[in-house]
Amino acid sequence: MLSPEEYRDLQNHMQALGDGSLLRLVLLNRDEYKPESLALAEEELRKRKLDCITLDEFAKKFPGEYYPYVPTFCPTCLDETTDEPAGFMFYFRGIGTLLRGRGSECDVCGSTVQGKWIYFIFPIFLIGKYRVKYLEDPWMKRGKRVTRRLKAKGSMRHFS
Ligand SMILES: [Zn+2]
Fold first, then answer.
1. Does the reported pTM lie above 0.85?
2. What is the pLDDT of residue 141?
3. 148 and 100 share one domain
């Protein structure tokens, strides 16, 4: 249980959070918070008349608070890619396939453009270009990512 001081500190903390951060806490990251914190965050949202907002509305209103925290691309990045993922990759002792390079970082969802290359000591053949989003989740394995192939039209401008 919280002492009155701790409760007040927590309350002050929630009141100091911006609308987007508060909504993210309640809608996306609720598993990471204790029930007391969640209750205070929800109370604060009620006061701000933001308690009825849906996940879709939240994503639209605060894209920068939503897209970096979900394994999804923002609408702009979805629009310039297809459903095709980069697929299986294998690399051992200089031979195989790797995603390489970095370009056209998205401010909203944090994805970048990378090329899928066949390696034979050096990258020798570019198979395709993909939007890649690396998921920042300490519980997930390193290198966990989501990928979507860039549409062919105009894709060169995204890669350097
Ligand atoms: Zn994006």
1. no
2. 53
3. yes
Number of separate domains in the chain: 2
Structural domain that includes position 142:
75-158
Q: Token pair for residue 133? A: 């989003």
Q: What spacing in Å lies between the alpha carbon of 14 and ligand 1's midpoint? A: 28
My answer on whether 101 and 127 are in the same domain is yes
CA of 111 to the centre of ligand 1 (A): 6
Look up residue 130 and give its two tokens.
Answer: 């993909």
Whole-number Å distance, alpha carbon 33 to ligand 1 midpoint, is 27
How close is the Cα of 78 to the center of ligand 1, in Å? 7
Run means of pLDDT, 10 residues per run, the chain, 160 residues: 89 94 92 91 94 92 90 93 91 92 90 95 93 73 81 58
